[in-house]
Amino acid sequence: MNRHLLMIVTSHGTLGKSGLPTGAWLEEICAPLQVFRDAELTVTVASPLGGRPPIDPNSADFETGAVPDLDTWLEGTQALAKVDPGRHDAVLLVGGHGTMWDFPGNPDLAAIIAAVAARGVVAAVCHGSAGLIDATGIDGKPLVSGRTITAFSDAEENMAGADAVIPFSLQQRLAELDATVEVAEPFSVHVRRDGNLITGQNPASSAALAAATVDAMRGVPE
């Protein structure tokens, strides 16, 4: 399938005022990237600042052997301001706690998502859904308004010990935008597709989310 997909990762490497390191979640990069490459998509990567993104050290034990060029690929991360959304048929917002700080309120990110959503597929996994907060549809309303989605849940934040340091509840913020936020048991595989908007709840959902994204790009019905 000769199509182009853009993966967007965080540039933020500190977990709030805790001083603890965070960043993108490695499984949420590698598992989808493998699925997309197997589907013969051309995949590029971008972040708010560009350059090699921070990786959450808690995810560093994920096996990356299926993506042997990962280091080189990440070194080529573009800055969002330099991305031409017209070149991409789909976008995937990768998670990791860093997104909670540099995805919301980012006009470049919101513009890319809006442009892709108007004609292609928008996907987000775990905390990547923080990038949907400012995204709008062609009607000017929040992209998630009236849609059924999922994201990293309040219960999962509590179990991860991050609920006291994150700047807001992702589950609740999305619900405030008139989204139906459907969450499953903590850390179980859970993906929701609502038209051209596809979301996965947590890292374990990464591969399934990517497969659903490929189906949507191929025009496979829900």
From TrEMBL:
Keyword vocabulary terms for this entry: Hydrolase, Lyase, Protease, Stress response
Pfam families: DJ-1_PfpI
Domain DJ-1/PfpI: 28-214
An MF annotation (GO) of this entry: peptidase activity
Transmembrane segments annotated in the record for this chain: none
Single biological process term from Gene Ontology: methylglyoxal catabolic process to D-lactate via S-lactoyl-glutathione
InterPro entries attached to this UniProt entry: Class_I_gatase-like, DJ-1/PfpI, Prot/Nucl_acid_deglycase
Alphabetized SUPFAM superfamilies for the sequence: Class I glutamine amidotransferase-like (SSF52317)
KW Cytoplasm (keyword) present: no
GO cellular component: cytoplasm
UniProt record similarity statement: Belongs to the peptidase C56 family. HSP31-like subfamily.
Protein name: Putative intracellular protease/amidase
